[in-house]
Amino acid sequence: MKRVKKALFYLLAIALALQFLIPLVWMILSSFKIDDTIYKDLGTIFAVVPHFPDLTLKSYQELLGYYNIFQNLFNSLIYASITVLAGLIINSIAGYSLARFHFPFKNVVMLFIIALMIVPIEAIILPLFLVVHDMGLINTMAGYLLPFFVNVMNIFLFRQNFMSYPGELIEASKVDGLGEFGSFCRIVVPSSVPMYVTVGILTFLASWNDFLWPVMAISNSGLMPIQVALNAIFSDTYNIFTSHMMAALTMVTIPIVLLFVVFQKYIIDGVVRSGIK
Amino acid sequence: MKKILVVLGCIIFILQATGCSSAGSGKNGNNKIVVWTQAAADHPEGKMFASRVERYNEANPDKLQVEIQNITRAGAGSGYIDKLNAAITANDMPDIFTLDGPDVAAYVDAGVIGELDSYMSNGFKEGFTDSIIQQGTVDGKFYAMGYSDSAVAVMYNEDMIKALPADIQAKVPAADEDWTWEQFVALARDIDTYAKSSSDAAFADYKLAVSTLLSDIASGSYETGTYYFTPLLWGNDSNIVAEDGLTVDGVLNGEKSLQALTSYAQLFAGDPLASASEPEKAFHTGKAPLAVAGFWYVNELKDNYPNLKYRTVRYPKMSEGYSGSYTPSGSWTFVKSGKITDEEKSKQVVEVMEWLTNDQAAEEYYAANGAIPSRKNAISVINTNTDNAYYNEAWTVMQYQVEKTNKARPVSVGYPYLSETFAKDVLLKIAQNQAADSETIQKYLDDTVKKLDMEFAKYKK
Amino acid sequence: MGFRNRSYKRAEVITAYCFLFCAIVLALLFIVIPIGRAFTYGFTDYYLLKPDDKAFIGLDNFYRIATDEVFLKSFLNTLQFVVLVVPLQLGMALGLAMIVSKKVIGNAFFRTAYFSPAVLSLVVISILWTVMLNPTSGLINEILTGLGLPAQPFLTSTTQAMPTIVFISAWSGCGYQMMIFLAGLTNIDKSLYEAADIDGAGSFKKFVHITLPGLKPITMFLVITTTIQAFKLIVQPMVMTGGGPDYSTMTMLQYIYEYGYRHRNIGYASAITLVFTIFLIAVSMVIKRLFKEEKA
CB B74 to CB A180 under 8 A? Predict the structure, then answer.
């Protein structure tokens, strides 16, 4: 009885695992084939199991001949990095200010932030587009990036985090001749590294994966981030065959896989923390 | 404290600087002439433009150099147009760009394209065929130089038709015969019934009776639908919009339109003969014996499917008694940005446009791409005396239609929305819901008219 | 605001506002002003290609919304998506979490496998599935026919397209929530299970009486976030179906995109934005209130 139960458990667990893995495996394998092979293999086990004599780099070579994917990947990397850096600075000092200082209208500012937390940013994407448009910043890096530096949720998270930081340590550091900003940089930030890494990674992923805003804000192919470029490639039915598309999808996924491998602990932590709070 | 201000100041400064620099290096840089086209760089059409621009630059080393940019389609739906619109609102327009003929009026109305009459060389305009002049003229002024014309006919797969019983075969008209939509649908119905019960090898891959490219509309190429099937309304002495370009009530939902569209819907009645999700290249690969086929099929078949025995007959007329023009026509054009203020530059821009659309260009486009010439003097290059009988027949039919029955799509400032809504909310909806009774179709039409009226309110004030 | 014993220190106030400066300016520019814009433009016939030609037209845009069948359809589609995807995705996540919480051989493999779609962006997921779901030459139909099942039209059918998008969204999103449930499961006091074992309770009883109540706060949180997230569906239909067939996958956000960005009808799209934003704020306030009552 127990054996049967165990076997059933494994059967279910493995079936579910296959359900998640088959699309990924198929994507990667197909990127190393030519279209004829992809469709010939569809009904066979070779759709998801490598058959090495059939594998080739042809689709990658051809794809890179049609589209400069590296440029788009690089754009995305730059955009995400700037957003992370600027976002961490702006949101954390704002959170710190709210956690530590007493100043007039602090309650108003707090209320303002809490109120903005329930505004669904994606829903106001059109008027945001108009504001950026009126500033003459459509199709510029500034217009694309500036709106997403401030993240009220992150300000709030940083504030919660800094609230629990003992004030005496900061006072002590001030005696050592550090100013407010100095003590923040030298004392507070180093002790909150996990928080910074977690928020930073989540910001990075959000920026890397964003699609709607770049579609609206960027039409210049030189500035296009990778997600939008992918969609453009997808709609090019003249040059692009399934194998090319799978090569493009695989190339876009590799950096994120690396990110997950390196920062695994922080990502899980971030996901979980955002859930527990 | 100071440090933080410096850091933030730096961030903002850098962003502003990059913002300014990328805005400054916009398409309107005065050191070159930028051309945007919807044609892919390695598509025959894209190659033709590139080659002509290259020769222009070589011949005119002292003038502004011309740079052609092939705009890859991006975003959902009709990508090139979305991107063009984005560039227009961002004030980042190219000097010359391509536009589909019927869309010209909307861009004239928005004030983003410039008129050409005062810059064109003498007699150049008159060299275009009448339908090209018609499609490029808004309120008496000429704005758009068409670089090719177009035509749509019906093609059939000879092997499959020959496998049919004689009485069905007899329903296929000759290449120089007019026929009606009703006869066309009846033929398709007979073929479908036979093919499904036959074990003849000719029908081994049979999937559907008629390939209509409706699947293209479903994936965002709305204009294809309007281009292919508005002629059914024309052939019943109706249209999708009145002469003024904005009145749809009583026209699109009028009796004659309803009649035509109910007849169109017979393709989807009962066992559907056509589908909004047909397999790709269904006609080319022998999955469909019939196709509503654009002129580009001829070269596609010649180059990539040399073994397919295709025959060509005329585009069916909706009402036998109708005597006006009714077949699809018109194509993409070159237009000039309305934001060029420099007179000298304007002159050269129009010179480049003439270079891209003159008699010689039209002949080259035909040779490279099978594009129907837009110049009167170039029409004679269409060759119907090759050693390929299928090819000759196809071009004979197309040429006949271009000369005798082609009609330009309506001129309307609201055309892009009109066309998309008609394609999605009428043509595609009928296909997807397999609605074939006139009551349902009348409802679709009334709903569409209501929707169009609300959107057109902005033009009517 | 209560009375304060100490007055503000000038230096501290200046520092505080300096620290807040960027955040406040950016929030005003890119959140508050856009909301204001939606308000003003919603009452005009602003057409982006003719910016100098806009006029105040009162409530016309809102009358139009009230009679616009595609608006209603998009709204109902969005609602349908939310109602289907939230239980499906969270149910899958909980089930997967139960599996990987068992300390068995291969546990790490299962966890990685279930979490693996998290490395794919929404665009990648949408494109990949569109290719796999191709009705005539896709992997999924090939598998179905291989198993002796009939091939399906999936995204090209008005009745199947939305459920397909629901499934794909749940498939791609449940890995994250599995991790959160997993953390919740490990937080449940082990002694409760031991006590239940002594009482001879079956595993189903233990699940209902110990596991579920233990996960309640996390579940409530996930319901809220997933619901709000689900209302903002746009990327999948935009890439996979363009809102079709026959508007069966058109969502609120995409409808705003269609009118505001593609047709440049800013007036009408702003009015829709306004209606939708207010609706979303109301929804999140209602579920937050429910959450609070539950807590108390």
Answer: no
